[in-house]
Amino acid sequence: MDQNTKKQAVALAALDYIEADTIIGVGTGSTVNFFIDALADIKHKLAGAVSSSVASTARLKALGIDVFELNEVDSLSIYVDGADEVTPHKHMIKGGGAALTQEKIVAAVAKKFVCIVDDTKQVDVLGDFPLPVEVIPMARSYVARELVKLGGDPVWRQGVITDNGNVILDVHNLKILNPREMESTINNIAGVVTNGIFAHRGADVVLVATEQGVETH
Ligand code: 5RP
């Protein structure tokens, strides 16, 4: 089974978590794109969506799904998003698509975070995937020096400007043994908007597409 077939299978499995007539949070990325496409068939059951990126907003609207500003919404029944890495503790690295900040905000509002991945994303320890850190542009060099002090090798993702007008540093060679502590430590560096460790608000359910089918964790 190729990776896209797995992504589609796990995206379809996430439809079971949608409660009728609620507003749902929608993440960003290639796995979520399969989820958004699958929403087309059940869009009459949805009250609408809040999106975590310009790209997902455009895809949702193209299907005729109402997209609300987060500030217009009191609660979200679920948030469905992919991940770059996920551990058995349901901690994640996210931000491969540079949408980490809005993803973290929408996830914070949602009652339930349903993470959809294929089995290539499962790890025991976070950090093989370079950790994305969203940074205010003027702070880029300072933040990079601070990340080196933490043992990482930050690389500026040149040419990428986030939906919030900021830049991304991808931090290589971090072994993230205590994700909650590392999430807080990096977020405390002046100039960091947020980093791609999702440990304080991890997933509630992780759906994993494998050769044998979709597993629920
Ligand atoms: C975007 C993300 C994505 O969820 C993550 O990069 C996984 O993407 P994909 O489903 O394309 O592998 O965090 O910022």
From TrEMBL:
Active-site residues per Swiss-Prot or TrEMBL entry: 103 (proton acceptor)
EC number of this enzyme: 5.3.1.6
Keyword Isomerase (UniProt): yes
UniProt pathway: Carbohydrate degradation; pentose phosphate pathway; D-ribose 5-phosphate from D-ribulose 5-phosphate (non-oxidative stage): step 1/1
Single GO molecular function: ribose-5-phosphate isomerase activity
Catalysis performed (reactions): aldehydo-D-ribose 5-phosphate = D-ribulose 5-phosphate
InterPro entries hit by this protein: NagB/RpiA_transferase-like, Ribose5P_isomerase_typA_subgr, Ribose5P_isomerase_type_A
Single GO BP term: pentose-phosphate shunt, non-oxidative branch
Binding site for substrate: 28-31, 81-84, 94-97, 121
One Pfam match: Rib_5-P_isom_A
Key words of the record: Isomerase
Record function comment: Catalyzes the reversible conversion of ribose-5-phosphate to ribulose 5-phosphate.
Family note: Belongs to the ribose 5-phosphate isomerase family.
PANTHER family: RIBOSE-5-PHOSPHATE ISOMERASE
Subunit note: Homodimer.
The protein's name: Ribose-5-phosphate isomerase A
Source species taxonomy: Bacteria, Pseudomonadati, Pseudomonadota, Gammaproteobacteria, Alteromonadales
Primary gene name: rpiA
